[in-house]
Amino acid sequence: MKLDGFSLDKLVDIINGDERLKKGLIYRSGPDLVKFFGEFGFREIYNEIFTGFKMSRKKYTLSKLNELNGTKKMEKVILKLVDDRNFIGLEFDYEPVNNSKTIERINKIIKHDGYEIKLD
């Protein structure tokens, strides 16, 4: 799966959860991001990345997406973001949160690259 740079930049906000207050997305802290990308083969330690080099969450996430872009792992990143198990037990403004908003938001981004999430 290959996405253009603009799409990758927009995915950063979804992965990091920086739009969570508006969209009901899951916020991921620095340690959460290291764990998230660890599932795709990166072996890093939080303190070395975020405190030693003063790398922001946004810059870290974008660098990982750039490394994964054009590989089969990129598709797995997208599918991990919309896995409904991520949303079990979450609430936003006292309403249960599910993956439908995340799917909708990601589809608005990746459609410009010729992709669409369709779940069975």
Q: Describe the strand arrangement of the main beta sheet, using strand numbers.
A: 1-2
Instruction: Please indicate the percent range of residues in DSSP E strands (runs of 2 or more).
Output: under 5%
| Number of helices, where a helix is a run of at least 4 consecutive DSSP H or I residues | 7
Helical proportion, percent range: 40-55%
What does this structure look like?
This protein is mainly alpha-helical and 120 residues long. It has one domain. Helices cover 54% and strands 3% of the residues. The protein has 7 helices and 2 strands, in the order H-H-H-H-H-H-E-E-H. The protein has helices spanning 5-16, 20-23, 30-38, 46-51, 57-68, 72-82, 100-110; strands at 91-92, 95-96. The protein has a two-stranded antiparallel sheet with strand order 1-2. Strand 1 (91-92) and strand 2 form a beta hairpin. Helix 1 (5-16) crosses helix 5 (57-68) and helix 1 (5-16) runs antiparallel to helix 7 (100-110). The model has no long low-confidence stretch (mean pLDDT 85).
Fill in the keyword field for this structure.
120 residues, mainly alpha, two-stranded antiparallel ribbon, 7 helices
In short:
With 120 residues, the protein is mainly α.
Secondary-structure map:
Elements: H1 5-16, H2 20-23, H3 30-38, H4 46-51, H5 57-68, H6 72-82, E1 91-92, E2 95-96, H7 100-110
Antiparallel strand pairs: 1-2
Helix pairs in contact: 1-5, 1-7
